[in-house]
Write a structure and sequence with these properties.
This protein is of the alpha+beta class. The chain contains 12 helices and 8 strands.
Length: about 325
């Protein structure tokens, strides 16, 4: 952050890292992980829409359709009241188009609607509405998968007040556009109308866009330190783009007080996670909760029943307290 604070504004804005520079750093350290990074880059480039087409769809009457894999992925045709949900999401898509820059709209309008499915997402988003949309371009081998994910109020809102943006989804999108040096070209927001609930905010992005992750549980300590430095530099560049980098650098100072504070927080949070997991295990042993062992590829098969029946369009559309909201469709 001190380095960014000393840069000219344009230089700080354009500052970014890429796979080539990270690989060069590893090679300077004579680290065999450079090869691992190269392989990860190849995997990331292959993790695209064409790859998802082969994995997520099958052909029905000459057209690709999303494969049913309940409860993780359930096509709209298999959901009760799915037609109502599909109609509202297609209406919301029009508002999503208006959130994009005009050149992205021109590109996206070349695609046609293919299929829609409900998708269960990561642990941090359980209970939020999430859908995947299959769009088709030139032909059936020219796919684009978009993820449509519900946006809710920021956890900071009770303390800092409402965002200047009228949409929770727009708040997320504008923040990502500002902080990311290389963002998703199809990132945007939409609003879906509902019965009696005032509607829902969603943000839209590509389901796959050259994403790859590092297995931090297996990485060696020295390489973990390098990876942590990359993550820290990326975070610093995001704050330099979106905030006052000079003031932040001055606050952090040249000592290690901030470093020690972050390390203490990380240790305390790790201990909290262990206590939470022990509480969960006790609840399972005591019969208050049920759990099912599953393979790593199906680790979400034991999701709580609050998510709902695979054949129910309202599944994943529950209120925050787990009760059913029957005012829709």
């Amino acid at each position: 952050m001190r380095e960014l604070a000393g840069m000219r504004d344009l230089d700080a804005w354009y500052s970014h890292d890429d796979a080539a520079s990270l690989g060069a750093e590893l090679r300077r350290q004579h680290d065999g992980a450079a090869k691992t990074l190269e392989h990860a880059e190849v995997r990331a480039r292959a993790n695209d829409n064409v790859h998802e087409l082969a994995k997520l769809t099958h052909v029905v009457e000459g057209e690709p359709r999303i494969v049913s894999d309940p409860p993780l992925v359930v096509p709209i045709a298999e959901l009760e009241r799915g037609g109502c949900v599909e109609a509202r999401l297609r209406e919301a898509f029009e508002s999503y188009l208006r959130s994009l820059p005009s050149d992205r709209r021109v590109l996206l309008e070349r695609f046609r609607y293919g299929d829609l499915a409900r998708k269960v997402v990561g642990i941090g988003s359980v209970g939020r509405r999430c859908w995947i949309v299959l769009l088709l371009g030139r032909d059936e081998q020219d796919p684009l998968f978009l993820q449509v994910k519900e946006a809710q109020a920021s956890v900071l809102e009770p303390f800092l007040g409402r965002s200047a943006f009228g949409s929770h989804a727009r708040r997320i999108v504008e923040g990502q556009r500002l902080s990311q040096a290389a963002g998703d070209i199809f990132l945007g927001w939409a609003r879906a109308q509902g019965d009696g609930d005032g509607g829902r905010d969603f943000y839209v992005r590509q389901l796959r866009d050259w994403k790859v992750s590092i297995d931090v549980e297996r990485i060696k300590p020295a390489r973990l330190a390098t990876y942590a430095r990359w993550c820290g530099a990326t975070l610093a560049k995001a704050y330099a783009r979106s905030g006052d980098r000079i003031a932040i650098a001055a606050y952090l100072g040249k000592g290690d007080s901030f470093d020690e504070a972050v390390a203490a927080f990380a240790r305390a949070y790790a201990e909290l996670n262990e206590r939470d997991h022990a509480t969960l295990r006790d609840a399972v042993r005591g019969g208050r909760l049920s759990a099912t062992k599953a393979s790593s590829s199906r680790r979400f098969r034991s999701l709580p029943q609050a998510i709902g029946s695979p054949a129910d369009a309202d599944a994943g559309w529950n209120t925050d307290d787990g009760s059913r909201d029957e005012t829709r469709c």
